[in-house]
Amino acid sequence: MCGIVGYVGSKNATPVLVNALKKLEYRGYDSAGIAVFDGEDIVVRKVKGALKVLEEHIAKETVQGTLGIGHTRWATHGEPSDINAHPHTNVSGTIAIVHNGIIENYAKLKAWLQEQGIVFRSQTDTEVIAHLINYYYEQQGDIFDAVLTVLHRLEGSYALGVICKDFPDRIIAARKESPLIIGLGKDENFIASDVPAVLEHTREVYFLDQKQVAVLYCDHVDLYDEDGNKVIKEPSHIDWDISAAEKNGYAHFMLKEINEQPRALRDTLGSHIILDGNLPVDVKFEELKIMNEDWKNAKRLVITACGTAYHAGVVAKYAFEKFARLPVVVEVASEFRYCNPILNKDDIFIILTQSGETADTLAALRQAKAAGVHVIAITNCVGSTASREADDVIYTLAGPEIAVASTKAYTTQLACLYMLALQCSYARRTVDLNGYKHLLEALYRIPSKMEEVLKNESLIQKFASKNYNKEKVFFIGRQFDNATTLEAALKLKEVSYMHSEAFAAGELKHGPIALVDTSTLVVAIATEHSLYEKIISNIEEVRSRGCTTLVITQDTGTIFQNVADEVICIPEVEDALAPLLSVIPAQLFAYYCSVMRGNDPDKPRNLAKSVTVE
């Protein structure tokens, strides 16, 4: 994934582009660049490294102009370098483009262009597009027609921004698979990969649909389909508070977003839970077409997602099967699309994706729809591809999540899944009315309990300060806790680069215990009361091998005090809802280990926020 921006208006484009790229740096930080038309030529400045390196580079000169495009890169084709950085141009430098995506047939197109005498400067697939546009522009004499022709030759995914010296009043933008928005300002317009890049300028945006093309002028925007036919579309209004995309005094976005979870959960739960006075009495998803009869008749629930969202799906499997007695299959989306899945029309299919643009998850969505299965998307992004293509959509009201490692998106996804599981259980009469209301109330009180967990931040920071140099960290748990260990291990490896793995506690003796020694930290998540004794046995097994142990539990007694080096308690809650709380100490531990090891937790190496290419 990469971040692209563009500006056409009356202001100097350079600072607008750089500031917009700062809001998108979570999408890639291998290199960055801008291309600005200065009244005579397209001036390109691009460098390897983070955006601050580009800022330092262009601070030495004045790049003036009111039309420009910019890019922050996460490398796919070609190593990070000045040459491989975007924007890319044609040979003469009269056409410049920025691109997010992967052109799958670039090798064939490159060979054809080389036969025409084109000499390539980079190893990227993107440079092919610049030369192709130039080839057809020389034939057709119109930059818009040339871009349309090229789009029909490209296989793969793209979000594009194109400028041409001969047409200095416009940006041409297009998308297929990769996300792209158009920001509508007053006497200025913008392109961007994501909403935060334009929030300080406008709240009116177009979310481009598949294969749509836009031409931006300073005073209006024209939309077209892939064949060049004009499209009429209503803009969307963005309600996000601009401060939601700022750090607001926190050292990093990741820490800010961990601390935003009580608010995010209140907003998400409050939009669906019906109150009688202060008491929750029902869940209502007005946006869903699925009715109680559909839940009653469902034979199976299929959940698919990637990464952190997949772990939310694993928790949901336990919740649906416990409450609703509905069989659940959870599949990694990148595997689902290739496994020739067995789908039935009486299945219900849920996809989870923070961005709504995850390529593998969207492919799974389309497979399910093609099989005639009803698809529910749970996403954080209004107007995203998932929200438009699914039969139903539920929005997590997390607000913008800037840090690459997901935190509040995960817990708000869990909140939506728990509400669906409870609604399903009552529809199927596997939970009676009193039990239903009791669980709803317990769920509704979770945000306040999250605030209590966050008060232990200093304790977790202190523990991290003693253990951030461990060679191996293993997370163990059972049932719901086992699902949480998957996410805990991922968070730690994502941002601290420590070797971390999650194991079902009962599987320790079946191989993993061979790895345990004095250089190991074992974190046991133990929130299910009926399984405490089992977990104690597991802790004693590993501790006898000399490792350090931490227990995250809701037991406030002394049951774990004598068997673990450190115990972190979360507030008492229904066992099945504990994953909403027990993950927070793990998130904080990952954050502090990252900082203490000298890393930037907001921008972990080799990772980007959302994987919009395969």
Features:
19 helices; 614 residues; alpha/beta
| Number of helical elements | 19
What does the average pLDDT come to? 91
Distance N terminus to C terminus? 10 Å
Q: What overall geometry do the principal axes of the alpha carbons give?
A: globular
Mind summarizing the main beta sheet? 8 strands, antiparallel
**What fraction strand?**
15-25%
Q: If strands are numbered along the chain, what order do they take across the biggest sheet?
A: 3-2-4-1-10-9-11-15
Helix percentage: 25-40%
The computed structural class is alpha/beta
Taking pLDDT < 50 over at least 5 consecutive residues as the criterion, the unreliable ranges are none
Whole-number radius of gyration? 25 Å
Task: Please count the beta strands (DSSP E, at least 2 residues each).
Answer: 27
Structure description:
The chain has 614 residues and is α/β, with parallel strands linked by helices. It contains 19 helices and 27 strands. Strands 3-2-4-1-10-9-11-15 form an eight-stranded antiparallel β-sheet, covered by helices on one side. A seven-stranded antiparallel β-sheet has the order 5-6-7-8-12-13-14, with helices on one face. Strands 19-18-20-21-22 form a five-stranded parallel β-sheet, with helices on both faces. Strand 5 (88-89) and strand 6 (95-100) form a beta hairpin. The radius of gyration is 25 Å and the shape is globular. The N and C termini lie close together (10 Å).
Task: Report a brief summary of the structure.
The chain has 614 residues and is α/β, with parallel strands linked by helices. The mean pLDDT is 91.
